[in-house]
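RETRY 2/3 - previous attempt timed out on the joint model. Re-submitting the same 457-residue input unchanged.
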Amino acid sequence: MNRDNYNQLVNKSHEISIKWRSLPAPQRGEYIRKFGEELRKQKVNLAALITEEARKIKTESLGEVQEAIDMCDFAVGLSRQLYGLTMPSERANHRLQEIWHPLGIVGCITAFNFPMAVFAWNFCLAAVCGNSIIWKPSPRSNECARGIKNAWDKISDDFSDLILILEGGNEESVALCEDNKISLISATGSTQMGKELAPIVSARLGKLLLELGGNNAAIICPSADLDLTVKGVVFSACGTTGQRCTSLRRLFVHEEIYDECVSRLNDYVNNLIIGCPSKDSSQVGPLISEESFNNMQVILDSLRSKDVEILGGERLEIEDPKEFYVRPALVLVDQIEDEMLKETFAPILYIKKFSDLKDAISMQNNVKQGLSSSIFTNDMRESELFLSESGSDCGIANVNIGTSGAEIGGAFGGEKDTGGGRESGSDAWKNYMRRVTATINYGEELPLAQGVEFDET
Ligand code: NAD
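RETRY 2/3 succeeded.
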């Protein structure tokens, strides 16, 4: 990495952040409104870039750009709602108030599998909150990053530098993490990446927002509507070729409906149209790389060596021989296998029978990650237990939909090895601001808090 270039980039970002933060927040929102309009105009072209680089099927790529547009709309409204609370003061003629201010520069490190949406989660909030952003995209997503930057440049007038891109790999991420001038590091990627970068940011007591790996589970209860359940399970497990942080990896099925569920899931998976992601008909595209394919096969071989039953999982020689298409694997396990406890970024779905819902919830929670979870049931007692403090320990808990495909309105993120961060909707904007607590005395006395006396003697 060229240090001079890096320093220039950070200086530019700092300068623009000073100008930008002095605009009233609703005016910042107006820029984001125009950005959303530009993304609408360029939706098809931007989606094509996602399909090109991330190998996502067309409808998912379009959905990803739509997610960025939705974030713009959300942030425009938010630009008039960066509320601070006013609290009653215990002292007469005093007022106690929270004021929110921008942080400065946000360093945003993103993964290959959501090359635009995750940036939009961060940028739209960071920008209306008054910050500039330096974006270190995945080395696999540079064209997507440039596409977004070009859209911003079209509408940003003098604020082009609000988004600056730092292309590169580990070295560039580490430089941002070490740099005191970067007020917040928002990093999305594997848990391993988070574990390596977090200590660097913590060593300078920097602010950190982590969105890391998942190992998501769903539970199917006897009362579930199996039509919607099977569709929800297959989309979550096989959609995006199993390469979402929220992809479904573990499935616990009640013994009464186990055989029927497995048979229907297997039929659905066998009928999936697997093929070139830019064809309208394709439902599942290739894996991102040969390395991903090899990682998948190592896990399946290890399971085979233990005589675990596997349906599918093989490479499909279709279309371009350089691509790695696979049939999603359904792995029927009698007991919890070690392979189930880690995130393999490929379409492998472990399926296990259960008889008691509490056991299923406990198996679901008994992994290091804590991102997304689902229950399929029409029994209100079961769904409420799942959502209660004794239920799912994840950041996302769904009823009668799969683990993937969250909307932007809610806060997105997970617990434990998923990193604890929350981005996108709800009050996630608070991550991008600093809170000032102000006490204002408009009286003529100086009473001290907690009744402390300090009178002249
Ligand atoms: P990755 O961890 O390989 O890379 C993510 C980003 O971090 C990239 O920009 C990469 O250059 C950088 N990076 C990786 N290792 C690094 C290191 N040691 N030092 C410095 N920088 C490093 O992840 P990926 O393969 O691009 O994406 C898949 C992973 O991301 C999965 O684990 C998935 O669950 C996770 N993910 C999480 C979320 C979420 O919101 N929780 C969203 C998308 C992806």
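Residues 109-114, 118, 136, 138-139, 169-170, 173-174, 188-190, 193, 196-197, 211-214, 245, 343, 345, 371, 418 surround nicotinamide-adenine-dinucleotide (CB under 6 Å). Closing ticket.
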